[in-house]
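dude i think i finally got it to work??
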Amino acid sequence: MPAEREIDPSESLESFIADMVRDARKQRGWRQQDLAAKVFSSTTRISEIENGDPPDLKLGRQLDQVLELRGKLANLLMIRDRVAFRDYAQEFLRDQARARTIHEFSLVVPGLLQTPGYARAIMQLADPDGRTDIDASVRRRAERQAVFDGPQPPWLWVVLDENALLRVMGSKHVMREQIEKLLEATERPYINVQILRTDRAAIPGSVSLLTSPTGELTAYTEGFSTGRYMVEPADADRFQRIYDRLHADALGIIESQEIIRDALGKHDD
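look at this
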């Protein structure tokens, strides 16, 4: 359980929330374990909240009721979500860089396996007004792939929608480079790719499951312009089950490699 630390409520919205919860609990003479029992959570989670890691909205509303905060906590959490909307992926990317295991389902080649040309094509499509520094974004995405070059690379298991191999992103040349990189990646013992055929059901977005070095499971799901990073066990478990169903319908490793090789011929100039 994290040790209690000094909180400056003026430092950030997260710190303000932490101070509010801690102060309301202490006014009632409760220990952290007392509050945890009243909201059906854990003492560790209450400690994390009071140290600056805000609850999700469901737990926030429970804390509102038990601590008689008159909805203030839920309102602050909703404001935080709106303010942080454009940065929804930052916490996920931070944890991805130090994850022990990564499981992904994706409709496109995942960022950790993308070539610069493929990444650029996707980013340009999503930025018709040219507001993003695409060169910098492509560079950052490529830099994140360095996690596989360290002494203890993460275990990566990808379920990839077959359409990702067929749809032309950028050009046929870009696609050939991307598929070649995908094949090279699968030669590494810690990177596995399974193809979900087009005649199998899929979800309209991506799912990433991260297992931290200490064993915690988190989940990230993303659509076209929205994403959500979930650290609560119940949320992560739900997306683990979704991933498991997709994985069960995917082709085996050897069959998938054959499909990937066959896709190369579909992008001849």
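The chain is about 50% helix and 15% strand.
im so relieved honestly
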